[in-house]
Amino acid sequence: MTMREEKPKAPSQKNKSAKTKSWFWPVVYxxxxxxxxxMIWGYNAFMKDxxxxxxxxxxxxxxxxxxxxxxAEKETPKYPFTEALLDEVAIVQDYYDVDAEEAMRESAMxxxxxxxxxxxxxxxxxxxxxxxxxxxxxxxxxxxVLDPFKGDEIILSHADGLKTIYRSISGILVKxxxxxxxxxxxxxxxxxxxxxxxxxxxxxxxxxxGVAVNPRSYLAF
Length: 221
What we know:
With about 220 residues, this protein is of the alpha+beta class. It has two helices and 14 strands; from the N terminus they run αβββαβββββββββββ.
């Protein structure tokens, strides 16, 4: 009796479908997850590059190996005196602005030896008393001019082409080339022979790119 060879049975369509399902969906899910992670990474990288800078969030290395801030937060100018004195402060002579009202222009004319000179800053008085003069912005002491007739003067240079100038100062506490912080005491307001009308005062000037501008455009006196 001859035995017939039995042909191997082909796997059923049902088994094929089961095997296909076992690997198809995990692959799809993995692909979606990879795309999603890539989108998040790209978004974070984009936001990091375009985000506005604050002090300490970005830096670069100099040739000397020093780390310096590249996106430091800008300061806002402050009054050149302790803000506790604000209610006692008076502007006795204003900045000369050709577009200002007549009364303000007259207030900004300084008279010496029967000659009129326009005021390039604001003349600040605190009820005729001496008061501490403070740096309006952080910066570098560019120069100190000693003049017993007009009163000693301190010039600070700042970022963006700004300078602040403090005139009629005594007891100067800083030196040329020194770095100063905003609010740091520079000296004490005093009187001088050139502008006796103002008594004890501070003449505060702001320059932008070497040109005197109205300090009131930076501070609400």
